[in-house]
């Protein structure tokens, strides 16, 4: 991996982690009860680096989507939060394959 490609990779990875943590924090609030919006946010945030970087989409899917299940399991022992990984992987790979098909 070239230095410019490596730096752009990390340039997108750190914000993906931060946005994933933000989504998980919002999702864990007591008044928040909209899984559809959470899934759409995860999908969108994972799709952007999947498209722009087009490298290792699985890592971006985990960087964004792992936090909702972790918060859900750690704070309420709810393993249903693992379903949040699905829109993360769908978004990251949708962005990745869109980039591959367009180039």
The number of E-state strands comes to 0
Distance between the termini: 19 Å
Number of domains: 1
H/E order of the elements?
A: HHHHH
Give short descriptive properties of this protein.
mainly alpha; 103 residues; single chain
Task: Give the structure's gist in a few sentences.
By secondary structure, the chain is mainly alpha-helical. The protein has five helices and no strands.
In words, what does this structure look like?
The two termini are about 20 Å apart. The chain has five helices and no strands. About 80% of the residues lie in helices and about 0% in strands. Helix 2 (about 35-50) runs antiparallel to helix 3. The protein is mostly helical and about 100 residues long. It has one domain.
């Amino acid at each position: 991996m070239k230095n410019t490609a490596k730096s752009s990779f990390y340039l997108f990875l750190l914000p993906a982690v931060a946005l994933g943590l933000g989504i998980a924090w919002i999702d864990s609030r007591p008044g928040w009860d909209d899984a559809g919006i959470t899934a759409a946010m995860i999908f969108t945030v994972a799709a952007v680096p999947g498209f722009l970087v087009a490298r290792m989409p699985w890592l971006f899917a985990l960087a964004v989507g792992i936090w909702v299940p972790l918060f859900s399991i750690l704070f309420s022992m709810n393993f249903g939060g693992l379903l949040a990984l699905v829109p993360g992987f769908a978004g990251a790979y949708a962005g990745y394959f869109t980039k591959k098909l367009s180039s």
